[in-house]
Amino acid sequence: MALQPLSIVILLAYGALITLISLTPCWYVMVTHIEKQANLSSENIVTQLQSEIKYSAELLHPMKSSSTNLARLLSSRLDSTNISFSDIETKVAPLLFEAFETIPHLTQISYIGMEGLFFSYCSDHDQALAIYSNSSSNKILYYVHPVNNETGKVFGEAIISNSSISTSWIKKAANISNEFASLGTRWTNGHDLLFLNSARVNKIGVISLGFSAKAITDSVTRVNRLGTGTYLATKDGQILVEGIQHIRLVISNDSVSFQSVNANGDVIKNYEGTVTCKDEANASSLNIQNTQYLIRCSPIDILGIESVNVLAVPRNGFDVSYKKMGLALLNVMLVMILVAVLGFLFIDGRAIRREMHLCASLIKQKEATHQAERKNMNKSLAVASASHDVRTSLAGITALIKISSKLVPPGSELASNLIQMEDCTQDLLGLLNSILDTSKIEVGKMELVEEEFDLSHFLEEVVDIYHLVAMEKGVDLVLDPCNGSVIKYSRVKGDRGRLKQVLCNLLNNAVKFTNEGHITVRVWARKQTLSSSIIKTNQNSFMKQLSWLFSKKKNEADEDIEKTMNSIQQDPPRSMDFTFEVDDTGKGIPKENYKSVFENYVQVKETNPVQEGTGLGLGIVQSLVRLMHGDIEIVDKNIGEKGTCFRFNVLLGLCEGETVTDFSTKEGLEYGTSNGTQARGRTTHATSSSSNICSMSPMYHMCNSSPRLEPSRVVLFIGNVERRRTCKRFMKSLGIKVKVVKCQKDLFDTLEEIKQKGRRSNGPSSPESSSNLSSSHNSFSRAKGVPLSFMDGTEYMSPVFKKTNFGTVACFVLIVIDANAGSSFSELFGIVSKFKKGLSNSCNVVWLDNPHMHRIDSRIIDQNDIVISKPFHGSRLFQVIMLLPEYDNGSVWQSIKKPHTRNSPVHQGEIQECEDSSCYKPLHCKKFLVVEDTKILRVIATNILGSLGATVEQCENGKEAVMLVVEGLKRDDPNPPYDYILMDCQMPVMDGFEATRRIREMEKPFGVRIPIIALSADIDRSTTVTGMDFYIEKPLRKEHLLEAIRILNS
């Protein structure tokens, strides 16, 4: 049975050869028959073409008698033998013009008197001309006059013509009683050939009609088929029409021959053979330019001029040489068939022997493969079953490290070792989790744990986790709301932990391999059809491989599925297909590695050879996505675009009841990692808050309940191109008028333009409206006149995006400005302040601040301005939109937050009234510079200071710190650039002692002294000698920092 496939192939080859051998004689007979039919067809074509050309020439015969008829008519009018030029003008000229206008192809008509009088009409392009001579003297002058094309009357001035008229043919015409035909040229142009038909008029003159030779020959030889070459010539050898290019026709004694000429007309070659020009002559076959032509020559009469017509029709390659070539090919084919038969016999024998050997090897290989699979399965089962014990041991090690950390002096070498041990333990735990996940997937023990969660909150939480890490590298991480479908279907059921693991892995890779540009996370939902759901459910099924054995049952099953789909088509969806995209502008992945990157233990070294890892991440991601009834792929980018775009989809169930996101929850801060999948070190987790959004599919529903004067305007000045594009597109999808500003100069021009339009359209503003808005804006103001509020998506906003009757405020202006997009904050603030002065419309300003730089000076901004210190997307974008009067009905402007008590936690990002008696932010409005070379310690210090209300900037060594201080001192600002500096003592490039010494030197010309607090585990009195004001032992703690500041202030 093993030999059956090869034997079938050989038998089929033999059958094909036998069939080919039997069909070869038939092919030869058929070719011979086709040759005869082609020759007969060529002769028929020649005969038919000549008949058509003769018929066309016969149609011109009535034009020959035109000159005779016109001569008779003139003879009846001119009865005198002595006529004057006035008789010609009155009697001859009108008749000539009438014939000139009515006879086809007539381009010249003339009357020539025997005494020398002459009058003629001819056409020059589209203008008719009259040529005449009114003197019978020896020296005859010819005049040219333009003629009216409708009346035949001359106009304008006459011009003396230099052309002379040949009278030789005129004498011949006068001596013939009937018409006389000849070839001539036009009076005004000696190059245009004419067919001349002349007749005598009472022995006093001659009437001549000139027909355009080109028009006549075109009408005769208008038929051209199958590449036929048509020649037309007079019997005296003048060629009228040339057929084949660079082939000249030679006429001699009623026969024609052919010559090959070059572009200059020089003869290159004379072709052998002649063709007889008689009606009864048969067609001849000549070889011209390596092409066999069937040529026939026949006489033809054209307007009384005896001519010959030569037709050359190609014979399409059926000649003797081709027939010989066909026989040679036939012999070659027979030889090849014989060689093929012998070759098949030889190959057949070798194949049988090789196949027997391969069958024996295959049996051995299958046994070895089954044994290896059993060993691998046993190993995976052992690793999976030991997961509990390994995790327990790691948890014990981690607990012992934390206990030991409390027993050693902070900042000591042993404490540092314990911290490093804890980091290594976390790395080991993350690696173990990857290996255990792989083992569970291989043995089929990975199960999904379904829970209800808010997908909109979940996305913002994950994106905010990695936003801080991305900003450390100068990369912006953007959450794109797309069409808003995720907000409508935000309450879902699924495995939140596994979905977070997938997203965190992709975001971690994107941040790791992206050094500039941006990273965009896009999510949208679409309805899941029953058929595609079943296909995805069975995507990894083994039965799919055997489906071709059960095609009949499969068709029946498809019919049942179709019936079920039709029966539930009108039911509301119970699940949605959510598509996720993580698009970065990093180095990208070569296209040839698109599939291999999803294999376990595979890394793309071309992308970044210095990055380490196990290569398990994307393999686990693909397995988890398929476990959630989806798939993952790498999307091709457009030409010129950098980076990689991962796209995956998962099937999530919808919760019953309300499916719209609730954006009214509060936001807090916490520290830690997420199942070992997020970036290393301390990362700020921001549980996003959002707002309820109603009926958005795919855009938000906006209900207009009352007329309004003019829609609000939003001005966006955001530095990052991707974030700017995302915000603009989303706002425009809501029907908001958005103006995008790309540079600081355009901001000034745009605001001035809006201000001028507001003045023209609105006039003076209403005092009541302005006072109401001013009082409502105070809900965002801080106590004691401190003009700063924070908005990070945690305030109580209007629950839905819908237009209300609050739209009666005329042209409300909302300005969103990225403080890091301009050259300096003071210049941006000056532009906004100038815009607000004398503004007739209501206006609100939202400042976007970078938590790592904090360029906003809280002491100068307006008390109604809002500051967002977290990424401007998600709930924070939605709440800024709800600041517009159309979407809130005034609730945003009039709601006043309840003050927090001492026992309530302070959430960064809330819009609240911060009073000294109720706010746990003792360092609010204080600006710190953290100088620390260790990233983890730098992040911890930033989070501690941020929780105390301070604004923080960071740098990695003393040299960068000196540069930041110098730049701040050079600014036109009476206040110091920083209120405090936390300085690490031991750093690369420049340590803290040298940095402090240089800062003190730079401060002297400006008359300021910035307090510098040392951070180190090994402190001595040298800190005060170098100019440091205080010191704190590592690690940084809140109580130690507050105590140091209290001592410095006292």
UniProtKB/TrEMBL annotation:
<feature type="transmembrane region" description="Helical">
    <location>
        <begin position="6"/>
        <end position="30"/>
    </location>
</feature>
<dbReference type="GO" id="GO:0000155">
    <property type="term" value="F:phosphorelay sensor kinase activity"/>
</dbReference>
<keyword id="KW-0597">Phosphoprotein</keyword>
<keyword id="KW-0256">Endoplasmic reticulum</keyword>
<feature type="modified residue" description="4-aspartylphosphate">
    <location>
        <position position="984"/>
    </location>
</feature>
<feature type="transmembrane region" description="Helical">
    <location>
        <begin position="325"/>
        <end position="347"/>
    </location>
</feature>
<keyword id="KW-0812">Transmembrane</keyword>
<dbReference type="GO" id="GO:0005789">
    <property type="term" value="C:endoplasmic reticulum membrane"/>
</dbReference>
<feature type="domain" description="Response regulatory">
    <location>
        <begin position="927"/>
        <end position="1049"/>
    </location>
</feature>
<feature type="domain" description="Histidine kinase">
    <location>
        <begin position="385"/>
        <end position="654"/>
    </location>
</feature>
<dbReference type="InterPro" id="IPR004358">
    <property type="entry name" value="Sig_transdc_His_kin-like_C"/>
</dbReference>
<dbReference type="InterPro" id="IPR036890">
    <property type="entry name" value="HATPase_C_sf"/>
</dbReference>
<dbReference type="InterPro" id="IPR001789">
    <property type="entry name" value="Sig_transdc_resp-reg_receiver"/>
</dbReference>
<keyword id="KW-1133">Transmembrane helix</keyword>
<dbReference type="InterPro" id="IPR036097">
    <property type="entry name" value="HisK_dim/P_sf"/>
</dbReference>
<dbReference type="Pfam" id="PF00512">
    <property type="entry name" value="HisKA"/>
</dbReference>
<feature type="region of interest" description="Disordered">
    <location>
        <begin position="754"/>
        <end position="781"/>
    </location>
</feature>
<dbReference type="InterPro" id="IPR003661">
    <property type="entry name" value="HisK_dim/P_dom"/>
</dbReference>
<keyword id="KW-0418">Kinase</keyword>
<keyword id="KW-0808">Transferase</keyword>
<dbReference type="InterPro" id="IPR050956">
    <property type="entry name" value="2C_system_His_kinase"/>
</dbReference>
<dbReference type="InterPro" id="IPR003594">
    <property type="entry name" value="HATPase_dom"/>
</dbReference>
<dbReference type="InterPro" id="IPR011006">
    <property type="entry name" value="CheY-like_superfamily"/>
</dbReference>
<protein>
    <recommendedName>
        <fullName>histidine kinase</fullName>
        <ecNumber>2.7.13.3</ecNumber>
    </recommendedName>
</protein>
<dbReference type="Pfam" id="PF00072">
    <property type="entry name" value="Response_reg"/>
</dbReference>
<keyword id="KW-0472">Membrane</keyword>
<feature type="compositionally biased region" description="Low complexity">
    <location>
        <begin position="761"/>
        <end position="781"/>
    </location>
</feature>
<keyword id="KW-0675">Receptor</keyword>
<dbReference type="Pfam" id="PF02518">
    <property type="entry name" value="HATPase_c"/>
</dbReference>
<dbReference type="InterPro" id="IPR005467">
    <property type="entry name" value="His_kinase_dom"/>
</dbReference>
